[in-house]
């Protein structure tokens, strides 16, 4: 079973990750990981950080001659900013010694973990909360999850995501999205992300891409921020992953946790999702057909019925809130003085959707990989591949 | 830590449940459990089943003189239908012996676990899939989760749910719902469910209730079915449950799994949810204020920031698909003949929302109770209550 | 993955068990379970309880026409004593109502969970501790674990146990045990338990059996009690279950937990165990040979190297302490008065070893079954059996 | 809850570890970790490796100004050998590229994970098995577990171990050990390890120390190896950690897993352990006394009854097999040629007991720390310490 921990602070010396439970014999390279790390860093609407910080996950263990050994795969990723000459991060983030004249941060930002983090962990300084709750952590999460993604890919299971909504701009309905995404997914859903990557807002529709960029530009001027919705499509999954027999084995529940456990996510839906709730049964359920094998005429269920994959593409959507750090201030109150104050001006991105897609593609990979391992078992890729190819459904 | 298993088939002799991890000294009675079981059974739009089947969870262990002992609490619940004179369930569901002339079910119903269940478990008969994937299981789930609910209640944490959408009928926006639900929640959110229970569609707004009933009536005549959206509000939670430090400790992710792991759920959102994705930052984030203690001016985050409770009410919404069993048939294909066929006519409910609310109120209780146990620890209610009352945030 | 909960008190109305994670298509009957329940009840040195209490686990779910369906298997087991006319258990163990004149037990018995149980759960009465910590619980544990045992058996994996020491009476060394047990295990280790069952102390050597009975008789007269050591042998396991890569995946560690988590166990060893610690390397390590396949010349490792099964029989030994309830009193102190007192006279068994063997055989079954599922995966017995038979090591 | 992963190969560039679940506000320094790392490296009977390899765990995250932040603590530890000029490890252990002329290891060593590891993971080279199954991994395990150990220490819970048997040399019985260890433990059991550390075989008795050294010297000349038995004593634990209500919550079972999941361990016992099995009840059970608080006259149970701590010192013993790498060869068979061969001469330690003690002290720390967290809950040391000090039992 794939299990992973990430560690590291936003401005600490490095991020660390360990992936335990990888089968042996899986092809894995730093290059494969890097492509998704680079994708995660790109996207319209970024602030200035990107230029100086190109992430690279260094494999420290678990891989020999380009293949996994079954032993834990460890990654380290240097935070380039940490050692910059003019940076005082080594002092601010010092692991040993006294605080000295390092300033405390006492102004909690609405929409961030700041206030509650301080209350929970009994801090008088918001700094450690910022450092760990930051989306910087997702860099290592993408690295770790990419191991599971490589595993899925070797079995022909592909994951591809794209942005379908930024602020008020988006597709008008489910069918509109299907019309553009489904043909791409026919030969594997990596085509979806590859096509989407051509747009710096990761939207497949070029008109919408243009509008989204305009919206971002507009809201940046206003000093506010934007959220949005992404869609992730997974192709190549066999039927019968997950189970209806016990609640915690339902694969849609597991996917929902993975998505909502990602920074800034406020909602998730499978297939038609909330639209299904507003529709009549005959507009929702997918008729069953038999042509050489059983299939569905439509896929409004998003590839999951009864907590199990149906063999149709799995379609997941996530709702991301606007970035809470904004130029135009919000009201807040200081931890020490308790006085009402404006949040401080901070340079920030306006919209994180284009990058959040890559994180979402990543975090569902271990969920799906574990469902494969539960169904097919095995310790080496040879063993697993053979069983996967000999499957009957 | 509260852990539970449910067992049992829809038409087997009984349902069984075990709850492990209950602190000692918690007041618990069959009457407390029963009130939620009864609520789960009630709701406009039910088919004929309700009349003959009033659920009662019999406590088999773990409770003495009205209080838990810390030992596992076991429940048994008779399926009244099983032993009816004219029923052949004992024969159809026989645990031993040969199948004999018991008919196989070979026509999978779209929208149910039927087809995939058979593929997964290598069956030639859909019967065992129907029996376990049915929402009948939620009766025992409600019983099991009610133990956690009693625990929360003893600490002043209340859970209340109501229906906000059935098919196309629902509140126009977030503020409309807040205007009616928030005043009720002020003295604890059980007021919400108690008020909602006065409507047989569990909607707080009587005009909408009327329209929902009409919609159900209308769609029943059409032979189709309806889904909808519920909202669950939790009051009395302290700040700081969950954590931002590791993905699987984020309480919103855990809640999302619990909701989506319930039969027929296709989506979940926290606070503004998908609406947040379509809004600008300043319309979403809750400003921080200090009056004796830190609080938020608004609660559009739905009581969760950075994967932790903020101390404001937790607001969760779930999207349920329309019931897949419908009078007007859908196309499907027979497992044996592979021939296209209409689904069979089956008596069924049209809309399960009013009852699904009670299930949702229940399934989040163990998630929250475990977060409390993680924060406060303890083996007995005396120990836990004291710490809870002495908390600082 | 096999997971199970047991519930129930020693003198409550019934015991309950749920086994979640069983593959579909496994043959399972109440008769199969019963044979091990009956074995668990038999053994020289029992007190009077046995006569009136023949256990039967009633399957409540998860089995149809003699085969599992993949759904949770629930068991209920009536406590016959509960409803006896002259028993006041329904009053003493009442789940509702006030305590009334039901006496509190305030004299903790050394060697039992009594004192700590009361301290932990904040009780003023030892009764609930006695009820749940009692070995009565193992009746349901045997039932639940028997599902995993049936699974293993269908793959040709057999478990058999025997007593090798009672008090001071036992085999002189490892080789003595091997000489009698190994030939029996050659055709599957169920032969071991079947042969051992012919002795009422479950010892394979008839001379030792006689001495053990004499020892028990002698110590009963003295008013004291006895413990001992059992050995469990598992045959038919493939090589490579468990793993060396992460500590919690080592199968010897998992087995050790299962054994020591059983009532009254104070030690466990694999293969030569503590004797290995006192020996030189050349007396311990098993040379590797190749004859058609790789094997070991000896099996002093007890079938486990590097946290993995070697393909040789797994040999586990457990050390059980003497029964703490004894006729000749020990000193203790009353919970209320704090005064020193003698423990009360209680009718009790003198030695539980013969029955503990059956419990031990049972509790390791889920550990091994889960290792099989991890290696071979699968949802139905057909799927699993095929892969198991096609394995290469 | 403390959770940790270790990663890294014996001759890879570095070891990595992540500890997730640490409360905030715990004092932690690299110096604290280092003292146990250094202890782990010392001990009579080592081969030549020690000189060039002094371990240092570098904290990469989770600690600021000398205190934990609640975020995951990551460690990296350089393998000094890896980059030595004359070493070809970077080539042998290359993560990328082809194998080239790097030799395969095809001669499995009896007693190691070699043969089964290759079978399990489908390797044609034993190298990756050696690299991960090696006791080198315990260096990072000690580092990770030391975080839990610092946590316990801050609450006054101390862990101390010593060697009681090496090969045939050891204390004659339980009382002999108690006579020397218990007085030391009276002021906290760190006194035990501090005293034991004065002996290079970590034995408290100087006569035995001398004999053990002689035994090691003797067996080295013979070309064989030795195992032995250690004892770990934990003082300062409150009563009531663990539970009798469900098998996997029994703390003795959890401890047993932790011990046996350590390299080369073949057995574990609590308190009298196997000696209890050979004794009569009156020689085993600890009478209860009341003097201001409840206590036991003796502690033959080793501080655990009914799966719970009693408040008396916890006493654990582990049996380690002799080191399998030995100068005098054993027979084995080549993976490729299948031909019988002698194992190759390898420089190796003769006895690892003195170092294994430190590993054992370490691995039980997370088990105990988690039991404390379960009982007392909490996110910061202030919160936990207050509750711990206010406890009633």
Oligomer: homotetramer
* Radius of gyration of chain A, taken over Cα atoms and rounded to an integer in Å: 22 Å
Mean pLDDT of chain A: 95
**Beta-sheet strand percentage of chain A?**
15-25%
Please give the domain count of chain A: 1
* Amino-to-carboxy terminus distance of chain A: 22 Å
The CATH class of chain A: Alpha Beta
Q: Can you tell me the CATH superfamily of chain A?
A: Chorismate synthase AroC
For the secondary structure, the number of strands of chain A is 18
Query: In which order are the strands of the major sheet of chain A placed?
Result: 9-8-10-16-11
The number of helical runs of chain A is 13
The residue fraction in helices of chain A comes out at 25-40%
CATH topology grouping of chain A: Chorismate synthase, AroC fold
Output the structural class of chain A.
alpha+beta
Function (chains A, B, C, D): This reaction introduces a second double bond into the aromatic ring system.
GO molecular function (chains A, B, C, D): chorismate synthase activity; FMN binding
Catalytic activity (chains A, B, C, D): 5-O-(1-carboxyvinyl)-3-phosphoshikimate = chorismate + phosphate
EC number (chains A, B, C, D): 4.2.3.5
